[in-house]
Specification:
about 280 residues; mainly beta; Beta-galactosidase, Chain A, domain 5; nine-stranded antiparallel β-sheet; 4 helices; 17 strands; globular
Length: about 280
């Protein structure tokens, strides 16, 4: 009897380990795309333009190509054998370097950035974009450029007045240099430095933005610190755009971010977010 019980316990332990392996997330990088894979993700993977763009200030009503985007070169430095850790180095056209350490857990991806200016001139890099493509996740798989690019909006959310608000939220803005899309300014971001898309008049309650999966069982959410804006884009995407704030010669700044892929339990998600980003809790 004791031998049988030990065997059953062993089988249960193996089952738990296999389940954990199946639930865990792994990473891959292909050109400028970070690919997150895992059983909990609809379709098995989620693609992130990482990193989409480093940006100058005075961008809220400026030409995106001629003024805002700072060209950069990105190099995959290393990826661990278990595909849990990816290291990337970016070099901006003005000489700034950004070292990225990206680590996958069971239900989150952690980002740690070291931004350094080794030059003798101040850097104009004020903010940067990470573009999370959510078409497949939310169940809208029509090729981009066909159909309605806002079809996924009812699955997307931010937090307004302390509660979760599904998009399109109230007072949805429709005019800007470029349309469509929606920007929510962070509490410490200059009005002059935002994405040149329609600006919603309401400040978000926190720096968390995300979406529910097509079957409403899973939440994708993301946040960065420091952050300057939340953004709903034209590629069935959402952003929590990070703030850099320029760098003086020799200066170094640390930036961190998270992607959560968790069961549909909003209070539990908020609890994790508050622990991970206490600076953003108001």
């Amino acid at each position: 009897m004791h031998r049988l019980r030990r065997s059953l316990f062993s089988l249960l332990a193996v089952g738990r380990l296999l389940a954990a392996d199946q639930a865990a997330l792994t990473l891959e990088r292909s050109e400028n795309v970070l690919i997150i894979r895992g059983a909990r993700i609809p379709g098995g993977e989620l693609r992130v333009d990482y990193l989409e763009a480093y940006c100058r200030g005075n961008s809220s009503n400026a030409d995106w190509v001629k003024h805002t985007v700072i060209p950069h070169q990105s190099t995959l430095v290393a990826i661990s054998p278990d595909r849990k850790t990816v290291c990337i180095e970016d070099v901006l056209a003005d000489g700034v370097t950004v070292e990225h350490t990206i680590t996958a857990g069971d239900d989150e991806v952690d980002f740690r950035l070291v931004v350094h200016n080794p030059t003798a001139a101040r850097s104009e890099a004020q903010w940067a974009q990470v573009c999370n493509r959510l078409g497949n996740f939310t169940g809208f798989t029509a090729p981009l450029g066909t159909g309605n690019p806002d079809d996924y909006l009812p699955h997307c959310f931010i937090f307004l007045d302390g509660g979760l608000a599904r998009m399109p939220v109230r007072d949805w803005a429709t005019t800007a240099r470029y349309v469509p899309g929606q920007v929510w300014r962070g509490p410490n971001a200059p009005l002059s430095d935002l994405n040149p898309r329609p600006l919603n008049p309401h400040l978000p309650s926190n720096g968390l933005i995300g979406a529910f999966s097509a079957d409403e069982k899973t939440i994708f959410a993301t946040a960065w610190e420091p952050y300057q804006e939340l953004f709903q884009g034209v590629l069935r995407c959402v952003h929590a755009d990070m703030r850099i704030g320029g760098l003086e010669p020799g200066a170094t700044k640390l930036i961190r971010g998270k992607i959560y892929l968790v069961p549909n339990d909003v209070p539990a998600l908020l609890g994790r977010y508050r622990r991970d980003f206490p600076e953003q809790v108001r």
